[in-house]
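Why do we bother with holo predictions? Because pocket geometry can differ from the apo form. Keep that in mind while you read this record for flavin mononucleotide.
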Amino acid sequence: MRILVTYYSTGGNTKKVADAIYEALEKEDRDIKPVTEVDNTEDYSLIFLGFPIHGHSVPVAVHNFIKNIKPGVSLALFATHSSHKDSRLSREAVEHALSLSNASEVLGSFTCRGGADPEVLDRLKEKPEHREWASSAYSALSHPDESDLEDAKEFARDMLSKARKFEKHFL
Ligand SMILES: Cc1cc2nc3c(=O)[nH]c(=O)nc-3n(C[C@H](O)[C@H](O)[C@H](O)COP(=O)(O)O)c2cc1C
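The structure, written out:
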């Protein structure tokens, strides 16, 4: 089974989670690259796709990437966000990402907090559309931490075992 770990990350948090997932899959035939460098997804049967939540939603580059994944690929999503763990807005953003997919099987998703620059937060929390998440975001500065990265590795192993079961069922 060929596996792709791909991500969009402007500040490095989502990349850290992607690296942890890649590391957890060390025994597998796998690649890692940013979404902007992936030309072709057809060679992979399992894709881990990660993104930061931006404005309660999915960054445009990721939106387009998800839409172009061909049916037949198993997809596992991961996201970082500054609002509290499992906050309503972060769950809604991931649900939105899941709804964009044509992939035949969405195996699961993982989220954790990721800190944003406090100066950026000071500016964003003045805007009504960002106030809710930005006000709760200052305490995310230490994330993703070691414990988040361990959780991400466990997620990776869990998704791999699900993908194997899925493959067996259909081959
Ligand atoms: C322009 C902008 C918009 C953001 N919007 C949200 C948001 O709606 N909800 C949230 O929880 N975090 C939001 N964040 C915080 C990021 O999702 C978080 O810091 C994430 O870990 C960044 O990942 P990265 O370092 O991989 O880019 C936003 C950050 C930026 C810069």
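The domain at 2-115+143-166 is CATH 3.40.50.360 (Rossmann fold).
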